[in-house]
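#onboarding

Welcome to the new folks! Below is a worked example of what a typical request in this channel looks like: someone posts a single protein sequence, and someone else replies with the predicted structure as tokens. Don't worry about understanding the tokens yet, we'll cover that in week two.

Example request:
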Amino acid sequence: MIFAGTPSAIAVCRYELAGWLEQGTTLSADGRLRLVRALNALPAGVSLANRRDYLPTLCGTAEDDGEADVIMARYRSGPQLTVWVRLGLCGKLGASNGTRTGQRTQSLVTALIAAGGAPAGGYPGAVRPAQ
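Example response:
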């Protein structure tokens, strides 16, 4: 599980390549519940993009690792929780709270689009669990 309980507030910020903020939003109570459920239902581990769907030369620079969604969750009591979500093409994909990870799934993509809208370039092709 990525989240313990349902946070009292969640902000979702999408960062594009080179770490530039693309968009951000805060979630309603229903939105928080849907996102928490989606993240907590993820299979453990991380995913990798299917190399048959892209040219590996598209990845490999430090900028490729800058694209991510950052979920900042506050609870009525206790520490804030930050979850990093990478759904792009390069590197390890999925969600992590620093202790637990979850694979990139279509339900995670759908939940983040519902929470903050789709990124300008969309999310690329098929993924597979990392071995």
